[in-house]
Amino acid sequence: MELFYTDADLSFRDEVRRFLKSDLPKDISATFFEYRRHSWEQMIEWHRILGRKGWVAPHWPVEHGGTGWTPMQQYIFDSEAMQAGAPRLRPFGLKMIGPVLIRFGSEEQKARFLPRILSGEDYWCQGFSEPGAGSDLASLKTRAVREGDTYVVNGQKTWTTTAQHANWMFTLVRTDPAADRPQSGISMLLIPLDSPGVTVRPIRTIDGDHHVNEVFLEDVRVPADLLVGEENKGWTYAKYLLGNERVSIANVGQSKAELALLKRLAAERFRDGAALIDDPVFGAKLADLEADFLAQEVTNLRMLSSVVPGGDVGALSSFLKLRGSEIQQRIQELAMEAAGAEAAPWQVLREGGAKDGYGTHGWLFSRAFTIFGGSSEVMKNIVAKQVLGF
Amino acid sequence: MNFTANDEQRMIADSFARVFADAGYPSTSGNNWSALTELGLTEATFPEPRGFGASVSDMVHALIECGRAAAPEPVIGAGVLPGIALTGAGSAAPEMPEGTVCLADGEGLTLQDGALSGTLRVVPGADAAEVLLICLADDHLAVVSMAEVKRDKYRLVDGRGAADLELASVKLADGAMGGVVPGMAEWLRDVAAVAFAADALGALLALREMTQDYLKQRKQFGRPISSFQALQHAMADIYHDTEHFLSLTHFAAQTCEGTDVALRKRAVSSLKRFLGGRIRRAAASAIQLHGGIGMTEEYPLGRFVKRAVVADMLNGSADAHGARLAKLIAEETRAGLQEAPEQEKVA
Lengths: 390, 347
Hints:
The structure holds two protein chains of two kinds.
Chain A (H helix, E strand, L loop, with lengths): L6 H17 L2 H8 L6 H14 L17 H13 L7 H14 L2 H13 L4 E4 L15 E5 L2 E8 L10 E7 L11 E7 L5 E6 L8 E12 L10 H17 L1 H17 L1 E2 L2 E2 L4 H25 L11 H24 L20 H7 L9 H11 L4
Helix pairs in contact in A: 1-4, 4-8, 5-6, 5-7, 7-10, 8-9, 8-10, 9-10, 10-11, 10-12
Chain B lengths: L6 H16 L10 H6 L17 H13 L7 H14 L11 E5 L4 E3 L2 E10 L6 E5 L5 E5 L4 E6 L5 E11 L12 H34 L1 E2 L2 E2 L4 H27 L5 H30 L10 H13 L4 H29 L1
Parallel strand pairs in B: 1-4
Antiparallel strand pairs in B: 2-3, 3-7, 4-5, 6-7, 8-9
Helix pairs in contact in B: 1-3, 3-5, 4-5, 5-6, 5-7, 5-8, 6-7, 7-8, 7-9
């Protein structure tokens, strides 16, 4: 992408590199280059380092703590940080509820929550999916009934990523079961996870890890000032939030770093006496992945350049999510192939943690990418309706 | 990142589009070569005063119009490419006689005692040209008159003209051999791949629009077939593949003007690999989505499909470009691994 860098971009990149060299802890970058997954603690540590630097939410408006960087600069920062082995910051506060509060929240909510998202004092999780409401999210049943200054919430959320670490959950609840459309009776509530009646239970995924949870809500009393925007307008906020989530999942900077790591792995492993990277069959797969990645990288920058900061990314987020998630899966797939027999041992209980960067664990976990944040099939439905006019 | 045409690029593209619209393309087929040359459009890439030295990325928008109109004129072979070769060679260019020029990749020709011999197959625009400009494998440009060459003219599957040429000890005239321009042969091959890809992009944009409209209009089982999810998803794939192809085409065109040869090879080979993979499948899928009507010669969809297939077949196969890309990835990765400890030492 250097071809498109201005002189200002180049000096920005150098500034980013200097910062990463001096401030990214060595144990954190080593985790990435040893093909391991960053721990929650490493991620939080990096979040707080960026928070102190003022670089933790580049995409936010400057008055709320953003950096005022151009989309290109945001991409430079993101891809440089990922290539240096930095953890990917969890998007729930920074990319999901933060922008929603900035756009739709009350002044009190902004003042109360935004600084704590930036500093890493609060951690958020997303209470959207339910056992009976996956792709058909608007059919959700968790009920919130207004009693004076309080909502009383009953129901169950699931696939709640990092609920075991979070202290807050932004939650879609049904406030008007009689609305003419299911989408019209939904509100967004901010729920403290230490409220009486909240129970978080882990769900172990097929990679052996604990990413997601079930969250049970039994007569949870939530002060009414924790309603986002207006009652029964939650679907509008959720759609805005999901657009941002999908761009975040597309995650081109992380793919760039993981693709580079995959190439390194292929250069260091041998098959029949030759480096895997020189193997014509493996090389052809790498070449196809490289071509598809370059197409996605350029398209991502082309499209994000056209979005004004804080604006609605709309249907293009579906496109970027769709293709970005497939690319990430293929990186994991080739990393698993490159590791060969070494990918097979179940590594979860091993000393130092699993080598997810090339094991079957990474591939197994990557199957989730085309499911969460809106499945690939739902993304295509959205494109068919919103872009193609079908 | 912005690939919108600047004023000059837009002007050239609009001029092409106007000639094609007047001619009734893509529903008809004709020959508007003289109309295009009178407007100075076909030789925009030639050095001044013949043209104004437009680059391949200047021409991308115009070539998109050529593809969109399925225009049969040899705009790339007998206009864009020879001009870019001459402009790129600068003072090392040979002396050019008058007349329409086409460019041939001279790999496989032999030069002995100032005479060229050998066979050139499938040279686009060679049917229409009076002058043959050849880029020899050792990075010289040479020029010969078509009158000295045995020529077998034909049409490509998409209706554009080409020829096979046989040179039997064709003596080069004084000044007909230019100077060495290091890397020129490979650069020109990449430029040609990009020019044909830009044209194919125009065809794909037309094909996409046509297929989208057809799905909305065509009714079966009492409703528009665009209401069926299987077809919606197939169309969404075509849509996305075309957007990616557009990005790669503009990106690759810009790398052809830069000094970073590795980046250019990576971009152009990615483009060709994408063209021979996803775009070929997208074109085939458009036929499938149309059903029987998509198979008929009368219906214009086939013209756009063929346009993309020609770009896919010419200037190195998708497999050859895949191999080049794989080699490049291996080289760059190794260089990066050796560099890493060096950086640590310096720090």
